[in-house]
Amino acid sequence: MREVYFYDKNTKAFAGYDVIEDTAEIPENATTVEPVDSNGIGLYDPTWNESAHSWDSLTEEEWKKKYTVPEVKPVPTQEEQATAQQMLLMADLQNKVDTLADTVDEMTKSNQQINATLAQIMLQNATNAENGGK
User: Fold this and answer.
1) In sequence order, which residues have a C-beta less than 8 Å from that of residue 33 and are 6 or more positions away?
2) How far is CA 52 from the centre of its chain?
3) Given this model, what pLDDT does residue 130 score?
4) Per-residue pLDDT tens for 102-115?
5) Are 2 and 20 in contact (CB under 8 A)?
6) What is the per-residue pLDDT for 44?
7) Measured between alpha carbons, how far apart are the two ends of the chain, in Å?
8) What is the 3 state secondary structure string of the chain?
9) Which residues of the chain carry a pLDDT beneath 70?
10) Are 76 and 83 in contact (CB under 8 A)?
């Protein structure tokens, strides 16, 4: 039994392998030459070179360039864009509401301090008036 490696008759691209009897005739579009490099490592996109009776290979970089699918960044629809814009506006409004709430809290505390000071002054004035302005 021996392995034979098939290639496409037109493109000469590797098309798989099979095992045949030792006495069987090798098909027209096949070879017993394994599609590996001198280290026994498989080739990138091997194609049969009839004149050299060997397999040609792409480099790793060529193979990656040929088969790497570029990342496709989805384009948002108009509805998605409008929704995103509304979310930004809502976040901005919430930020403004939070800032206003903080300002109101500060003003309330300040007003309470003013009222407490005013109450002390009024108490002092009342006390002074009772003592006859002394």
Assistant:
1) 5, 53, 54, 55
2) 45
3) 81
4) 999 999 998 899 98
5) yes
6) 95
7) 128
8) CEEEEEECCCCCEEEEEEEECCCCCCCCCEECCCCECCCCCECEEEEEECCCCEEEEECHHHHHHHHCCCCCCCCCCHHHHHHHHHHHHHHHHHHHHHHHHHHHHHHHHHHHHHHHHHHHHHHHHHHHHHCCCC
9) 133-134
10) no
Amino acid in position 104: V
At 119, which amino acid appears?
Answer: A
* Model confidence pTM above 0.85: no
Distances (CA, A) of 67 to 22, 40, 56, 60, 63: 37, 23, 17, 10, 6
User: Which residue matches tokens 């069987």?
Assistant: 24
Residue 3 CB burial class (10 angstroms; 0-12, 13-18, ≥19): exposed
Q: How far is 96 from 93, CA to CA, in rounded Å?
A: 5
Tell me which residue has tokens 């034979």. Answer: 4
